[in-house]
Amino acid sequence: MHRKLSSLLSQTTCKKTQIMSPNSNTSVDITQLTNLHMQILKMVENNSKDTDIMKIMDTIKILSKGLEKASQSELELGYKDRQLQKAQQLYSELEQKFQVLKTKYDDLEGQNKNLKTKIDELMHQNQLNYHQYQLQTKLSGDLNHKVTNLEQRLEIILESDFPNESVNIRKTLTDLVKECERQKRELQLKNQEISRLTEQYKSSQQRISKLNQKLELMKKKISIRELENLALDRAEWIQQDDKQNDPTQILIRYQACDNLDFRINALKLEFADIMNDIQEQGTTVFTQKVMQSTQKQIKESIQLVTSQYLSFKDFSEKLNMMLKQLISLQLIETLQEQMQFIEYNFKHVFMCQNTRLWILDAQMGILYSSNNQRVLINKGSFSEVLRFQKPLHKRDYNLLCDNTNHVAMYTNQSLLYPIFNQNQILSGILEISNSVSDYFSFDEEYYGVILAKFCEQLIKTQIKTRLLSVTLKFDSMVQNAFHDFLVSKTQFELYKHIRYWMETILTVSMIAFYFVKNDSFITYKTIGTSWDGMTHKNAVTQGRVLDQPIILSRKGIAKQVCDRKKELIVMNMRKSIEFDETIDLDSILPVLIHPIIYDNQVIAVFEVPIKQRNLLKQEKDKIMLGSSTIVGLDQSFEMMAAKLGTTIMNAINILKLQ
Question: CB neighbours (10 Å) of residue 471?
């Protein structure tokens, strides 16, 4: 009996636990507990006198009360859970509505900004329209005033006897129109005179201010030296003021002029004044003044104007002719053909026998022309141009230069212009000599300045083109070297190609090249001092290089460079502490030791003597466009060695030969 009660109590406890769990089914659990309770009551009625049974009954009553509370709590939790689900559903609906309203708000805000922008534009346009309206209103008032005046005049005319006075009215109107036109011309001339007087007034004020400064300095009892400096400053200022229009300054300026006033200033003073009057006052006033002069003055004025017209016509025609020739000259590619074109196509512009462009070869100390005529630069007018580096105008019989056979060359008259390159270093001379008219005018000097400046541009273009060609040539050699490196099947073949191309590009015969592996240098035995450039691929049959690898321990300056992983230039190998005669080159020239590094590891190292004139430098010197000699090490040698080192590194990395 006790066992049955114990089992029923344990079942009751388990059911209560299930009821208290959040996932329990409340109605089913309570029904089952009720059935258990009824079974226990029946058992107790059958055994009501047992004290243990009474205790169990008390316990059952307590459990029944707990079950009732649990059922009520479960009902409340279910109600709250349903309320929470409704709140969550309402929150999600509100959130969706909020997103929709936010999107509408953003759209409305964008539309608001667009409307504000349009409003600002419309306000700005409104202001412009209002301003235009004010102008039109003012103009309309003026036109109305003019119309009123015209109507008054018409009324006066209509009131008069028109058929009888028509001739007088027409004559009066014609006179009024003529008088109006005359007044307009006089007003224009007066305005020009006012502007000219204003400029003169400004210049006078500047001079007065400088003179006042001078007076102030004199009042302070300045020294004589300071007065001299002041006078020099004033002279320089006046010179700068008049330099632009001074015809004698064309060669000194050596630049194209802003205007052609120098041609007028080259005339006599009275003629220059007449031309300036025509320019400032106009032809009408000038004609009126001339008509009031004597017959002699009228004749002189007419002769002056006609001669200047013909002179300007000839000047403009030659400039036009020169422009056409310069356009044709620009289309020519080679310098030799350009020099020949200058020699044969500009003589008629200068009316002379010689127009030659001489190119300077600074290393040889000579000038050469289009027909390969070579002259020395130590004597004559050429020497003066090279020394002063300024244009010269020789008006008399003079020594031009000596040719390479020491035969003197003379000219009657000559214009000589220095030609400069990009670095403002003299590269040549433009010679214009032996004028047909026995002298060169200011016009010819000006033509020469234009042609000389154009020649400078031609020289600069030629230098750039040739330097680019040389660079491309050596880039092509490096590419060919890289191709030969890649076709190598063994380390020995790679060594042969490396040695050949280093001798070819760097123009050196002494080369030490080592492959680096672990702590050893690997090279190949070389017989002789240089390669046979034409048959380098058959070098084995000639006994130049033997296919026998030589393994040496790392030592000498080459080891020091490998450890430091940096390029090194040694000026005297034997004086170096690290020098080892079995590894390092023994040369009286400075030696470049260059490591070849891949993935932070030295895979090869080579030593070559540095030559000042390698093949790249020799090719550049063939341009013969006047470059100064290089003092010291040639930077291009080091760059070419570094470029070769990079090419060798890439080839070794690709081949990975043993």
Answer: 13
